[in-house]
Amino acid sequence: MGRQRDRDGESPDVRAEKTCGSCGRRIEWRARWARDWEAVRWCSDACRARGVRPVDRALEESIRSLLAGRAGDATICPSEAARAVGGDEDDAWRELMEPARRAARRLVAAGEVEITQGGRVVDPSTAKGPIRVRRARP
Prior knowledge:
31% helix; four-stranded antiparallel sheet; alpha+beta; 138 residues; two-stranded antiparallel ribbon
């Protein structure tokens, strides 16, 4: 028996790559999504419930403005964006660290920035540990 094909005759591994609208991670194709792959926007129920909130947009804008104020090849830490949005007082910015990483991943998906570790560009879907964010290079 050969590979299964969907109604358009395409095998699942040739589908367009997608990123989650909330967390910015790569969405892996699932057989149950075969009929409505084009409508899939979220990688999980948690991301669908969370969506993209105003604080997430503020973090994206903070990343853009921090990078705009630096040299072309400079990087920032997501904590800088979290501090700019949440403030330094009471460590409120710490709660914004994961949302700041999600904002950076969404900007990677949009082609605006790159995420690096140790000076090398890494896959934002699988990066673990400390990351840096820089403008996308052509």
